[in-house]
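Sequence in, structure out. Go.
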Amino acid sequence: MTPQAQSLVIATAGHIDHGKTTLVRALTGINTDRLPEEKRRGITIDLGFAAMEIEQPDGAPLRVSFVDVPGHSLFVRNMLAGAGCVPAAMLVIAADEGIKPQTVEHLAICELLGINYGITVITKMDAVSHEHLDQVKSNIGTFLRDTFLGRDDAPILAVSAQTGAGVAALRAELVKLARRLQAGNSDAALRLPIDRSFVMKGFGTVVTGTLLSGVIHEGQALVVEPGARSVRVRGLQTHGRPERSVQAGLRVAVNLSGIDVSDVHRGQTLVAPHTLAPVDAIDAEVSILATAPALKHRARIHLHAFTSEVMATASVYGYEDVRPGTTALMRIKLDQPVVLSPGDRFVLRQPSPVATIGGGRVLDCTPEPRQRKSATLAFLEQLRRASIPEQLVLLVKRRGTAGIRLDTLAREAGLALDATRRHLDSALQQSDILVVEGQLLLSRVAMQQATNQILTLLHPRGAAGVKASELRSQAALSPEVFHFLVAELGREQKVLMRGESISLDAGPAVSAPESRQLAAVAQTYQAAGLASPLVSELAQRFCVSETEMRRLITLLQRDKTIVRMGSDDLFIHARAIENLISRMAPLRGTLIDVARFKELTGLSRKYAIPLLEYLDRGRITRKQGDQRLVL
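Output:
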């Protein structure tokens, strides 16, 4: 078996003229300074990219992508665009100069961005004596103490790009680093922050970036956000090789159709349709550097996240200044929308004098605009300590009696739809969360509140009752939630439905003989399973007119004992549908055709097609050509 290729994306970091670009060239043979001004001035101004392949001890290739960032203080904003998407950093310090201002700032930025893996490289070792090199290495060790580069598994290597000394050892350490790196978040929705866009002759618009999560396929429909521009993937490349699909964790070049290069730029993000959306306000946990000035309430700041940079206003909960070396909760209002999700890291810089002052972690991308600050603070305190399943439950509870759709919840959490379902499994099994009408989610607390509200409104009316539309309006509930709760109350014999009127249940709604007949019809449907009889067949079996049988069926349908399949003749028992949905759960994420569905259910086409259409309406499946995707 051929060993599977691994990948590593790593950003350089360090002061200007400490040899970052020269080191990358010594490793890869590629000069990442591509702009004429960079070549003329001999400094890196914008992001540069290079790649190489290393054979690992087991024979598997390691594909290493370098994002070479500028070291000059004037171009830190470009450095942030490069470092914002990588899992590892290579801190470069020249032996003849040692630790300098941008060394300190770049390391602080890496820590604020949550980068946890890396290597420190001392360059220009041939320019100093052995004694001086030992002293520099000792100083660097002290400087890195208590940082992610000060751990035992983060080596400090000395190299010379001119003579090649130490370069082979650095390649070996890159292999070890790749093995230590944790896998990306496979639950997250597809996202590729764009760091470069250009036109390639004969191909059109090409964008590049590091694929943070998800998988991109050739021919796939995607969306460029902000802007909601629909595009299609014409082609993919990694390390100069054409690919049919690309996994998360790789540098990717994507050839796009449907968009002009003038309409796409650094700071935008490629996402899957109907998933992530740009936001203009976030609630976040923010830490201010110990060396930075205090952050004032309502201060204007630059926010850098992934490849985006935007001006923003920071409103501190509590209205007090955030002192250096402390952490606070705040709402950050963005001047322009950015694609962000809970858990994303960002860096804050003050506009004047321009300097990095801190950074933080997104807690909530859809903050309630009119909620009292005390309630918001309590919610954020829970959110910052919660696991992903607990976060999802909190987001559902926050919506109260309005509930939230599953796809909306996934979008707010930044998760793929199937991952959202999986994380909710426990809450659903314990009935902390309830599913109302397909995909609408309601917390148990909200359901109890709405139920009590309905009963309270009905109490003064007694047996006289009230029109259903009037009761729903008074209770301020959506039709989905209202009808679900009324059906539940009816099953519990707490309310009584008579036509369009609802009242507190003062006795049986039907006579005893009719009740027995309804039970017999319901039992017939349950015994038939998915292959239920037609209305005319039931009328003959029970020796009643078809009109009378339809009246009985209507009563069973109102009680949600049976479910209409889209035809006035085809109804299926609710338990049979529940069982079918449970049987299909292991197939989530796979495609099935009508033949496969018939084989799964044992049904003929007469029953299979209406049932599949019902599952489409309930968003259990989604039609894709002649097949269905199980959601």
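Check: The chain has a mean pLDDT of 87. The first helix runs from residue 20 to 28.
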